[in-house]
Write a structure and sequence with these properties.
The complex is a heterotetramer, with two copies of chain A (280 residues) and two copies of chain B (324 residues). Chain A has 280 residues and is an alpha/beta fold. Chain A contains six helices and 16 strands. In chain A, the strands form three sheets. A seven-stranded antiparallel beta sheet of chain A has the order 4-3-7-1-2-6-5. Chain A has a seven-stranded mixed beta sheet with strand order 11-10-9-8-12-13-16. The two termini of chain A are 35 Å apart. The model of chain A has no long low-confidence stretch (mean pLDDT 95). With 324 residues, chain B is of the alpha/beta class. Chain B has one domain: TIM Barrel. Chain B is 31% helix and 19% strand. Chain B has ten helices and 18 strands. In chain B, helix 3 links the parallel strand 7 and strand 8. Chain B starts with 6 loop residues before the first strand and ends in a 23-residue tail after the last helix. The relative contact order of chain B is 0.16. Classes of the chains: A alpha/beta (280), B alpha/beta (324). The interface between B and D is small, with 7 and 6 residues. The structure holds flavin-adenine dinucleotide (2 copies), flavin mononucleotide (2 copies) and FE2/S2 (inorganic) cluster (2 copies). The site of one FE2/S2 (inorganic) cluster (FES) has 12 residues of chain A, from loops. Chains B, C: It is an enzyme of class 1 (oxidoreductase). Chains B, C: This is Dihydroorotate dehydrogenase.
């Protein structure tokens, strides 16, 4: 649904901006892994497409608020970063398929890269509510771009941090430490959200351990609601056939081993309907 | 009492003139979460192809000033899956359905039209002529009147007489009227314009084309002046031919602009990406604008901007903000 | 030390690649109040015609989303008054001057070129091919390769060998490469693109065309994707031909986009209306962007986006914001 | 010159908005009749062209301020109306040819239609400083659109107001009362600023009295600096030849009898360079 929300608070969190927006109706229905899209630029803007953001936090205040965490990348996020309390923000959501939750209590490692960790805390809440053990692995290029370390420390059985420049936690990538964390925790499942490269690495580790892995992918989106077909990536279906599926409505959460990470940005020759390929 | 908003595509009556544009409304199911697709003037499907198509690699979209470039490449499940999984859902809901078709040869278009000929519930066939003609070095049909006319004639021949065939044209030709006329001569009952002109964007950071495909189709308000011009020119030359106007319609005012230029219906594409409720909103806004201008019937507004200067139909503009 | 920003239009060297676009810099005097016209890569005049022209009635302009429609209609004093009152002022200041010419027949273009042939201080002749051909029912020269080539050949023949002739093309053709090739075969030393595609806007309050002339030329950022595409396609087909890229350049990033697509220089039009200092600003921004990318010579950036994917010239993009 | 000014104050004045902007450099150089152009819409706006406004008031505060008075007509003026103190506004000016002033003291009638009166008070100041007598005639369709009546009453020897609906002053148009005002004041000259129709009427009256009239015209402008040729109107030159001249740099102030009001919006057949017309 669409809501013209009101910005409640804005704050900086290291390299990121956090916006809390009063958006009843959206807040109510959010489940871990959902995202929302924001219209940016105001009236008469030249920016036509909405920007997608994971929902970080949902609170019941004022009928329901959602918090978004984002880095400034281009003009749309720059505009969002300039919003002040009481400004309005047009949101559509919740969108996408949320993370599936395990039926029975088990141990889950939650891996977040950069602002990707924003969507992991609601997930951790939900998992813990089902009696799961949660361990965190958060990473980024540098300390200021690791999001949510404190909260992870509070919530997680263990929390392992990595930075590429060594400014926080271990020097390296989340995939360098992930095998150790999985082994120590005897993890049953992995959830990951972050850059595509990281998701690929995390998936490889989980496959190695032969445990299920859910990844939340990010692709350039023009609509976020499944109508434009711009956000596709090659995913293997239950029938073994690779299809170009939409990150926005078929995802963003996918089973990691089903995503053909090596082929993202291409049409694999054996995908359904690939040029010169076989037809169903 | 509201205005009479009925729109006519040849002999087919639509309850209102606001359609979705091909390729911009998904299968209909996605939009239905936001508003009732049966309330649309009609729902236009993405361009259906014979075989399933995986489309183009990503990135498939890039934003440009007031515009959007896309290179989806007609991704779709193919006509069989369309008929099995997508069309019935729309038919069940009582949606008026314009089925858009795309092919690489006139024969392929004709074969698609034959596949659709016996299917109940199809309101009109829209022929997407912006596909590369594989028999002419990939030259797009819409760029050449005779190639376009051949496709239209073959589709017209394969389609039931009571289902209008709509030829969808591109603006990036030297003479859109010539192509329009060729299509009408070839049997088109109506015209749709504009499809996206070919554009391109280069990412100055990676120093590479922003789209994996290199070029893409430009849509959104940036192209509206091209759409208005095409509709105007074609309506002036072929006043009796119904035109579905599209290109950058985001508000009722934009819709009215195309209608005054000569469109009898409008389609909404890119605007849906920003506002999934765009179609009902635009219809509401259009109705109000017509009423404020004392136009009780949509049909009276069609092509109204063509009337000779100083002629008397300039009624009721006084109700708008006075112009200094 | 700054980057080497020299640009080459055939054998003519310009100290930098930022020009004014024809019809957008007045006579030069108006811009000179804001910045030194001699510092421009070159100043392009409005299209000069044989006789004085009063142009089109007003309103001549309408704003569209990220675009501007204009129908000035080549208002100007005619070539004699131009040579007497306008050119000398530019020459005195040491401005590099591209003289744009417009006519209704190939013979008229040739006559203009002859009038200019003995005039000192002219850096290049730009041939505005977006004029109606009065011998072909007003069909615009740029729409038809052979008509365009005939004009170019006659101008080339009448122009001193050391003054390059630049053919200025429109995007609203089915195949811009074909027109470009015809012009080069006709003797064009360089190409300029894009001129404004034809657009239209209707005022929904008066329910009339917003421009007195009905249609007008669309410029500004809205058309940049069309400009980038035209430059890209033509540079791919004719890599040796210098291209002056234009259409919606408002920042150094926009200029770089056209350069990466294959332009060796860029012209700034509509942006001057919003920012009279646009040319020096864009040059400054462009220089900084080149340096940040480790490109010491402008020439190294020309067409760089065409290099095969994954090739090694992807240097120094690491200095930009990391892309996730 | 271009100045990124700061909005000092905003206020509503009946149907109009008034913005005072700190713009040193521009303020210094403004003379009565000058105008400025404002960039509207902020970053990433879809509105490319500047909007033109007469300079109402110039003050030396903060290095120099200019005040603009405007009605909301379309999206650009709507954006301006939303500006708040401390926002920035990009101005270019002063632009145009200001009103020429009489060499010797004389009596001048200043006629303003709607917000057109905004530019008359600086003019009245300048005229009075030269020892001229000033009489005002201000009119508009309704009372809320008459601008500056109080100030006119303070400054003018006489002030006559007209409204078409009779809600203020005399019912009618400025041209209904102008002959009387000219006769009573034995005026030597007329200055007028307002809608084209009014300027035409005022010019006709002045011609009748055989006294000079200066009008400040308004045409759709894309640049305001004389480079785009969109703002032209037919004006008769000293040599008797009609030319399509630019409102922005050849005007906006013209001798009224030189403006071919009847032909505005056309190319008169006898204009220099008219289609099929004679060539110079
Ligand atoms: C499901 C999902 C969740 C996301 N969650 C977050 C988040 O929590 N925090 C955060 O900082 N960012 C998140 N992103 C990325 C965010 O959408 C982009 O950073 C943002 O769209 C960039 O907009 P811009 O105008 O600043 O940049 P530009 O690059 O100028 O954007 C231009 C266009 O490209 C699209 N685009 C560019 N990058 C991306 C991208 N990575 N993903 C999707 N569209 C893109 C934009 O929507 C826009 O249409 C998420 C993306 C997706 C798909
Ligand atoms: C010399 C001069 C002085 C002016 N002084 C004032 C003033 O003091 N107060 C005031 O309220 N208005 C004044 N105007 C008119 C003012 O410029 C327009 O009202 C304003 O540009 C409308 O912008 P918009 O976006 O609201 O409307 P829109 O109609 O949406 O504007 C669209 C485009 O048309 C142009 N345009 C539209 N109307 C006019 C017009 N009347 N004149 C010039 N360009 C126009 C705009 O610049 C813009 O490019 C003046 C105009 C001129 C030429
Ligand atoms: C993402 C996208 C996909 C499209 N797919 C099709 C298509 O399959 N067939 C077609 O005829 N037009 C297609 N179009 C063009 C639209 O139907 C429409 O003609 C064009 O976008 C202009 O309208 P708009 O500015 O309202 O989007 C597509 C446009 C977009 C943006
Ligand atoms: C007001 C105006 C007048 C123009 N006059 C001419 C002209 O006389 N000759 C010409 O070749 N192009 C003319 N052009 C086109 C420009 O030179 C340029 O090709 C086009 O505007 C695209 O660039 P831009 O988006 O930077 O304005 C004109 C454009 C505008 C906006
Ligand atoms: S973003 Fe449009 S389908 Fe996914
Ligand atoms: S507004 Fe551009 S010349 Fe006057």
């Amino acid at each position: 649904m669409q809501v013209t929300g009101t910005v409640l608070t804005t704050r900086r969190v290291d390299a990121y901006h956090a916006l809390t927006v009063v958006a009843p109706g959206i807040a109510d229905r959010c489940r871990p892994g959902h995202f929302v899209t924001a219209s940016v630029g105001g009236p008469n803007t030249s920016m036509l497409t909405r920007r997608a953001f994971a929902v970080h936090d949902v609170k019941p205040d004022y009928g329901g608020t959602v918090e978004l965490v984002f880095g400034v990348r281009g003009p749309g996020t720059a505009w969002l970063a300039d919003l002040r309390a009481r400004d309005t923000l047009d949101l559509v959501g919740p969108l996408g398929r949320p993370f599936p939750l395990p039926r029975d209590p088990c141990t889950c490692v939650l891996v977040g890269g950069e602002y990707g960790s924003a969507s992991l805390f609601a997930l951790a809440d939900a998992l813990q509510a089902r009696g799961c053990r949660v361990d965190f692995v958060l990473g980024a290029p540098s300390a200021d771009r690791v999001f949510g370390a404190l909260r992870a420390r509070r919530m997680g059985e263990t929390t392992t941090l990595t930075t590429e420049d060594g400014s926080l936690g271990m020097r390296g990538k989340v995939t360098d430490v992930l095998p150790g964390v999985i082994a120590d925790a005897r993890a049953d499942a992995v959830y990951a959200c972050g850059p595509m490269d990281m998701l690929r690495g995390v998936t490889a580790v989980a496959v190695e351990f032969d445990i299920p892995v859910q990844v939340a992918v990010e692709e350039r989106m023009a609509c976020g609601i499944g109508v434009c077909m711009t956000c596709v990536l090659p995913v293997i279906g239950d029938d073994g056939v690779t299809r170009m599926v939409r990150a926005c409505t078929d995802g963003p959460a996918f089973r990691g081993e089903r995503v053909r990470f090596e082929d993202v940005g291409t049409i694999p020759f054996d995908a359904l309907g690939a040029p010169g390929g076989r037809h169903a | 009492m509201g205005a009479d908003l009925r729109a006519y595509l040849a002999h087919v009556e639509l309850p209102n003139p606001v359609l979705t544009a091909s390729g911009c409304g998904g299968t209909g199911r996605e939009l239905a979460q936001f508003s009732d697709v049966a309330r649309l003037g009609a729902f236009t499907t993405r361009s259906i192809t014979m075989a399933p198509r995986a489309g183009r690699p990503t990135p498939r979209m890039a934003e440009t000033p007031s515009g959007l470039l896309n290179a989806v490449g007609l991704q779709g499940p193919g006509v069989d899956a369309f008929l099995q999984h997508e069309l019935p859902w729309l038919v069940e809901r009582g949606t008026r359905i314009v089925v858009s078709i795309g092919g690489g040869t006139a024969a392929e278009y004709a074969a698609l039209a034959r596949r659709l000929a016996d299917v109940p519930g199809i309101t009109a066939i829209e022929v997407n002529l912006s596909c590369p003609n594989i028999e002419d070095r990939g030259r797009v049909f819409a760029r050449e009147g005779s190639a376009a006319a051949e496709v239209i004639a073959s589709v017209r021949a394969a389609t039931r007489y009571d289902v209008p065939v709509i030829a969808k044209l591109s603006p990036d030709v030297a003479d859109v009227v010539a192509v329009a006329r060729a299509c009408v001569d070839g049997g088109a009952d109506a015209l749709a314009m504009i499809n996206t002109p070919v554009g391109m964007s280069i990412d100055v950071d990676t120093m590479r084309p922003a789209l994996a495909a290199g070029t893409g189709g430009l849509s959104g308000p940036a192209v509206r002046p091209l759409a208005v011009r095409c509709v105007w020119q074609v309506h002036a030359a072929l006043p009796g031919v119904p035109i579905v106007g599209m290109g950058g319609v985001t508000t009722g005012r934009d819709a009215l602009e195309l209608i005054l230029a000569g469109a009898c219906a409008v389609a909404v594409g890119t605007a849906l990406f920003n506002d999934p409720y765009a179609c009902p909103r635009i219809l509401r806004e259009l109705e109000e604008l017509l009423q404020r201008r004392g136009l009780d019937r949509l049909a009276d507004a069609v092509g109204l901007a063509h009337r000779p200067a100083g002629s008397q139909q300039r009624t009721r503009t006084d109700l708008e903000e006075s112009s200094l």
